[in-house]
Design a protein that fits this description.
Chain A has 531 residues and is α+β, with helices and mostly antiparallel strands. Chain A is 41% helix and 18% strand. In chain A, the strands form five sheets. Chain A has a five-stranded mixed β-sheet with strand order 1-2-5-4-3. A three-stranded antiparallel β-sheet of chain A has the order 8-9-10. The chains are: A alpha+beta (531), B mainly alpha (301).
Chain lengths: 531, 301
């Protein structure tokens, strides 16, 4: 940690306050003028993309807006947060976007939600509050914002335009033919090859971050489970982790094991679904049906062990509400054995088909450098040669498990497929290990740990970061709660947030009919991105 | 003479009525092969009845081409029905056209469909047209050469001569397989196109008819079914050459078509759709096979 402070001091940056709030969270308060240089030097030192970058309205407490920029220090397994205060009469800071690309969509978000101006940011278009609907000057995440009475303004969105002989635009969406979320894709093409792709998302913006403000910490779990239906468990885990950190709760060992097991279940069923989707998108329908069969069996297994097909209602602050008793463990073992065989079968089916492999090989290449610059995480990053997995970085309970992560170098659809198969197998291993370990903690203090000191538990306030490696990638939640146990501000970053940008670069140079395949190989969330 | 004309009309109507069933059978087979129940084999008829009763939405920006196209496309394939002897080798309007006419009448329909897709100025229609014409420009040479080889083997390009091929010849089987590959492309099937896809960006034939609804769509779908049955009919002559008996001709015909349907369904299940530009290799290969079969035909194999 001293390394970081020395580095900043050598840059003549004055650190007003350096505070280690939790063992893995270092907060550095700097002057507004030093904010940019501090972020740039941390970015260089830690070789980390901007993980989170957000603002908080603290006018009630100290008449300021505070902005936070979070980096990941993989060496010390820690988050490094740079924060600074902006006084109410000068709501601007110098933009990082030109130096750190991964900051740019965050800056657009800050501008749109708080009206804080990132000076020098090349792109200030709104992300989620579409100009056609929401008026200028409506900043919903300010504490005093009022919902405008009329919501229909005829602004319009400027797409990047590519001009030239034979270049034309193809707009697709937001409504698509399949049962997927809404998103608008604007292709600029010359014949079939794509020379520019721009995404316009935000159609499912539900104001989750605003909705969470003032909610009780237990009520928050239910909202988190609904942010993105396919990552219900990942979201609730990340949230609970953040709150438990703030409340300084140590959840029982058994509950920790159970969280590992359920998170891996979520990973497996979603990976299977994506693999089936890849096959379906190239018209290879037999394996697609086979994959959906495996997925359905997994969902039914979830229902038998937890009562919920999509693993909702399991997590709670302080532990889990569902236990896997010995008889359930036996059911899981039996089903997993069959599922494992079917997955190998599916793998054989796909890899042995020449016509299928021809489609996925070298399609939709995302280069490593691009992925790093964009801040792409999770599976997509691991397929492009970035071996980053939060389960390995922060360890915790995962230190008791043996599993390996794989990094493919090619970055094409085929790599993403390979990584999926690899992760499914590792997840099955993790579940088996978890079931073994559950035996050793039988009977100890149940699964849902009480909050410390009964009713007084809620007297703790503060901030904390929760992060899990969900099936798509690094899922991040930053939360501040007050002494009554209410959420004051919550910032959520879905892995899709950066990975969508990755997709728009991966598609370049491919032909239009290959785009759905690239898209499916990333399998990103609209709801998680739009919040 | 009047009796014969009457029989030819009956035969054409028979083809039109049978056509959707073949699509239904292929669809049912595909679904059963991939562990699904699938819709009834009569589903294409239900779809037709449903669509024909519906109103349609026509873009204000379209011209007469958009409205005329469904009729022209259906009309062109319907014409072809009169040119082919299906139930008996004498049941066709011989003087009106030979096998080459069949191909070029199809091209007329395709030309108008490609124009109509551009007419509505939607981005998908344009993509569909450009892809369809791209595919057709490689499919047609292969079809033409195959038809010539059949002509060489029968000594005439008259459909009646081709329909009464006797026994298998190596060269006709070879050009038959080229024709089979082209037939998959012409009927918008995997590995060239995918009829079942919901992905508008990958469509070829479906993208062209995307703007159509109601009655027009019903006509276009019926035309696609008829075009398919005509291709399958020609294939059945090549692969199952047996003398056609006027009384039981229709039964033999249906059995032959069913065998071809099974082949198509199995092919569709076991392959992924190929990349768009790979279609060039595929149809180029079909063309090569056709040329090769011409060589074999010339040396009398």
């Amino acid at each position: 940690m001293l390394r970081i402070e020395e580095e900043l001091k050598s840059q003549k940056i004055e650190i007003i306050e350096s505070e280690r709030i939790h063992s893995d969270e270092l907060y550095l308060t700097v002057n507004k003028e030093d904010f940019k240089t501090a972020c740039l030097s941390l970015h260089k030192l830690l070789k980390s993309a901007v993980i989170m970058f957000f603002a908080e309205d603290m006018r009630a407490q100290s008449k300021v807006f505070r902005i936070y920029c979070v980096f990941l220090d993989t060496q010390n397994h820690s988050w490094v947060v740079v924060r600074t205060d902006l006084s109410e009469d000068a709501l601007l800071f110098s933009s990082l976007a030109k130096d750190i690309y991964s900051a740019s969509i965050f800056e657009r978000e800050i501008k749109e939600m708080f009206g804080i101006m990132p000076q020098g940011c090349p792109d200030l278009r709104r992300l989620r509050l579409h100009d056609e609907v929401w008026p200028e000057g409506f900043y919903p995440l300010r504490k005093d914002s009022v919902l405008p009475k009329i919501c229909a303004f005829l602004g319009s969105y400027q797409f990047r335009r590519v001009e030239g002989n034979g270049v034309f635009e193809v707009g697709v969406g937001p409504v698509h033919a399949g049962i997927i979320g809404p998103g608008h894709f604007r292709f600029s093409v010359v014949g079939e090859p794509i020379i520019n792709l721009e995404l316009r998302l935000g159609w499912t913006h539900r104001g989750i971050e605003k909705l969470l403000e003032g909610k009780d910490i237990f009520a928050g779990v239910k909202i988190f489970e609904c942010i993105s239906g396919d990552t219900a468990f990942g979201y609730s885990s990340a949230y609970c982790q953040a709150i438990e950190k703030i409340l300084k709760v140590n959840i029982p060992l058994r509950a920790q094991y159970l969280r590992v097991i359920f998170l891996e279940f979520e990973r497996i069923y979603n990976h299977i679904n994506s693999l089936g989707g890849i096959a379906l998108d190239v018209g290879f329908s037999f394996p697609a049906q086979f994959a959906s069969l495996i997925k359905e069996r997994l969902l039914q297994l979830h229902e038998r062990i937890s009562g919920s097909r999509y693993l909702k209602g399991i997590n709670t602050v302080g532990g889990v509400q569902v236990d896997i008793e010995d008889n359930k463990a036996e059911i899981i073992r039996k089903s997993i054995f069959g599922i494992q065989k079917d997955i190998l079968e599916l793998e054989k089916m796909l890899y042995s088909s020449t016509s299928f492999m021809d489609r996925v090989d070298s399609t939709g290449i995302l280069r490593k450098k691009t992925a790093q610059d964009l801040g792409v995480t999770g599976l997509a990053a691991r397929s492009s040669g970035i071996a980053l997995d939060m389960r390995k970085v922060f360890g915790g309970i995962y230190e008791k498990f043996t599993f390996n992560i794989i990094a493919e170098q090619a970055g094409d659809v085929c790599s993403r497929m390979k990584v999926r198969f690899w992760e499914i197998k590792e997840s099955l291993g993790l579940i088996n290990q978890g079931l073994e370990k559950l035996k050793s903690v039988v009977g100890t203090s149940g699964v849902a740990g009480g909050l410390p000191g009964g009713g007084e538990a809620r007297s703790l306030d503060g901030v904390g970061i929760g992060c899990v490696e969900a099936w798509r990638g690094m899922l991040r939640v930053w939360c501040r709660i007050d002494k009554e146990g209410r959420i004051i501000r919550c910032k959520i970053v879905d892995p899709s947030f950066h990975n969508w940008e990755g997709l728009s670069f991966a598609a370049l140079g491919n032909i239009i009919p290959d785009f759905p395949l690239c898209n499916k190989s990333f399998d990103l969330s609209y709801a998680g991105n739009d919040l | 003479m009047i009796e014969k004309t009457f029989l030819i009309i009956i035969q054409a109507v028979f083809l039109v009525i049978l056509a959707p069933l073949i699509s239904g059978i292929i669809h049912k087979l595909k679904n059963n092969l991939r562990m699904r129940k699938g819709a009834s084999v009569f589903q294409p008829y239900y779809n037709f009845v449903k669509l024909i009763a519906k109103d349609e939405v026509i873009s204000r920006n379209t011209s007469w081409i958009f409205r005329a196209t469904p009729v022209i496309v259906l009309g062109s394939v319907f014409c072809v029905c009169f040119l082919l002897p299906v139930l008996h080798k004498s049941f066709f309007l011989g003087p009106l056209g030979d096998m080459l006419a069949v191909i070029f009448v199809f091209s007329l329909g395709r030309f108008f469909l490609a124009l109509a897709a551009l007419d509505a100025a939607g981005s998908f229609g344009g993509m569909g047209s450009s892809r369809e014409v791209f595919i057709a420009s490689f499919a047609e040479p292969a079809t033409l050469v195959s038809i010539f080889v059949l002509g060489l083997n029968c000594g005439s390009l008259s459909p009646s001569a081709v329909a009464s091929l006797e026994g298998w010849r190596f060269s006709s089987l070879l050009c038959g397989s080229a024709l089979g590959m082209v037939a998959l492309a012409e009927t918008a099937r995997i590995p060239v196109d995918n009829q079942e896809t919901h992905l508008e960006l990958t469509m070829v034939h479906e993208a062209m008819v995307l703007e159509y609804s109601g009655r027009s769509l019903a006509l276009l779908e019926l035309a696609a079914h008829i075009k398919q049955i005509i291709f399958f009919t020609i294939l059945s002559w090549v692969f199952f050459p047996c003398p056609v008996n006027a009384v039981w001709g229709w039964a033999w015909f249906i059995i032959k078509l069913c065998i071809i349907s099974v082949f198509v369904a199995v092919t569709e299940i076991s392959l992924a759709k190929m990349r768009l530009f790979r279609v060039l290799d595929y149809l180029g290969f079909a063309f090569l096979i056709a040329i090769l079969s011409a060589v074999f035909a010339l040396i009398g194999m």
